[in-house]
Design a protein that fits this description.
Radius of gyration: 18 Å
CATH topology of the largest domain: Rossmann fold
Bound molecules: magnesium ion
Helix content: 40-55%
Number of helices: 10
Strand content: 5-15%
Number of domains: 2
Shape: globular
Mean pLDDT: 93
Structural class: alpha/beta
C-alpha cells in the first residue's frame, strides 16, 4: 500500500480522538505483559506448566474480552493472584511510542485542533505510560474509559465522552487499532476512522475490511514516510 492515495481532507476535521495502546504506543508491551509475563508468573504461583497457565490465562481473558474488567488491572490481579501493577513496572522498559506517533501529535497540535486521548487502559497504566513517554502534553483531554464507566466498545462510552469532551462526530478523526472499537465509533457517527497495520512492532501485519489500516501516520499528514 502506498502513501500516494491519502484520503483525509483536514478541512473536514475539527477534532482528533486517538487510542493509546497499539495506536500511539507499541502494543509489544501489552502483548508481552498479557501473553508472556502473566502466564509465566501465574504458572509459578499456581504450580502449573507454562502451557497450561497460558491456556487458562488466555481463556479467562477471552471471556471478558472488550469489557471494562478486561482492562482492569485489579480484576486480573485478584483473578490470578499476581500483582499486575508490579508486572507492568517490570516491563516498563518496553513502553514506547510507535514510529511517527509523536510527530503526528505535534502536527495535530500545530493545527490548533482539539486532540483527545481516549483509552480503555486502566488509570494507573495510563499514568505510567504518560510518564514514560511524555505524550500527555499534546492532548487537550486525556480520558480513561474507567472514569466513564464503559469501554470504547460500547455506545455508553461514546455518550459519556460526548458529555465530557463535546465533539461533532461528522467532523472527527478517530484512530484505533481495535476493530470492535472502530465499529462502535462508526456506529456513533464518527466520519473519519482509521486502524493501524502493525500495532505490535514485533507482531504480524493485520488485515481489516472495516477501515483503512495505516502503515504510517505520514499517510494522513502528507509528510514523507
Ligand atoms: Mg488500542
Amino acid at each position: 500500500m502506498s502513501a500516494a492515495h491519502a484520503t483525509l481532507d483536514w478541512r473536514e476535521v475539527d477534532c482528533v480522538i486517538l487510542d493509546m495502546d497499539g495506536t500511539l504506543l507499541d502494543l509489544h508491551f501489552d502483548n508481552q505483559l498479557w501473553r508472556e509475563l502473566l502466564p509465566r508468573r501465574y504458572a509459578e504461583r499456581a504450580g502449573l506448566s507454562l502451557d497450561s497457565a497460558r491456556e487458562q490465562v488466555l481463556t479467562r481473558l477471552a471471556a471478558r474480552h472488550g469489557t471494562l474488567p478486561w482492562y482492569c488491572l485489579e480484576h486480573w490481579s485478584e483473578t490470578f493472584g499476581v500483582d499486575m501493577h508490579a508486572l507492568e513496572r517490570e516491563l516498563g522498559h518496553l513502553i514506547g511510542a510507535r514510529p511517527g506517533a509523536v510527530d503526528f501529535l505535534r502536527f495535530v497540535r500545530a493545527r490548533g485542533l482539539p486532540q483527545v486521548l481516549a483509552t480503555n487502559a486502566h488509570p494507573a497504566s495510563l499514568a505510567r505510560k504518560l510518564a514514560a513517554t511524555g505524550i500527555g502534553e499534546h492532548f487537550t483531554d486525556v480520558i480513561s474509559a474507567h472514569d466513564l464507566g464503559a469501554s470504547k466498545e460500547y455506545p455508553e462510552f461514546w455518550q459519556a465522552l460526548t458529555a465530557a469532551a463535546p465533539f461533532d462526530p461528522a467532523r472527527t478523526l478517530f484512530i484505533d487499532d481495535n476493530a470492535q472499537v472502530r465499529g462502535a465509533a462508526r456506529a456513533w457517527g464518527i466520519a473519519h476512522v482509521y486502524g493501524i497495520a502493525q500495532p505490535d512492532s514485533r507482531g504480524p501485519r493485520l488485515c481489516a475490511d472495516d477501515a483503512r489500516l495505516l502503515e504510517s501516520f505520514a499517510e494522513l499528514t502528507g509528510a514523507a514516510a
